[in-house]
Structures are given as structure tokens and as C-alpha cells.
Design a protein that fits this description.
- This protein is α+β, with helices and mostly antiparallel strands.
- The chain is built from two helices and three strands.
- It starts with a helix and ends in a 7-residue tail after the last strand.
- This is Aspartate aminotransferase.
- It comes from Klebsiella pneumoniae subsp. ozaenae.
Length: 69
């Protein structure tokens, strides 16, 4: 399970880079556990929460439902 979460984090960071993210999110791939501190602002978290994703509080994201493929 831990290895799969790490693979999903790497996939997430790589996808952000491929999509042209203006920030370096590589710190996410170095975190442990089921939650990640995103480094997003409160406003960014609110927008994501309303439109796209499940977020906990101000900083943590839960990596769920992402396929390896």
C-alpha cells in the first residue's frame, strides 16, 4: 500500500509538470502517509474543493481513486 501511494504521488507530480504547472511540486513526492501538504493558498483550496477535489482543511489533499495507468 505504501509503495502504491508513493507511485501515485510521483505520477501526480509528473502530471503537474507535464501540464505546465508554474510551481515546483516535487516536495509532494517526498512526503509520507495518505495525505499530502499541497502548499496551496486558502483561495486555491476553496476553488478546488468547490469544483474538483476532496481537500482537508487548508493544505492537505487525499490522493484517492487514481489509476496506475
Amino acid at each position: 500500500m505504501r509503495q502504491r501511494i508513493q507511485r501515485m504521488r510521483l505520477l501526480f507530480v509528473n502530471t503537474l509538470q507535464e501540464k505546465g504547472a508554474s510551481r515546483d511540486f516535487s516536495f509532494i513526492s517526498q512526503q509520507n502517509g495518505m495525505f499530502s501538504f499541497s502548499g496551496l493558498t486558502k483561495e486555491q483550496v476553496l476553488r478546488l474543493r468547490e469544483e474538483f477535489a476532496h481537500l482537508c482543511g487548508r493544505f492537505r489533499t487525499y490522493q484517492r481513486g487514481r489509476d496506475d495507468a
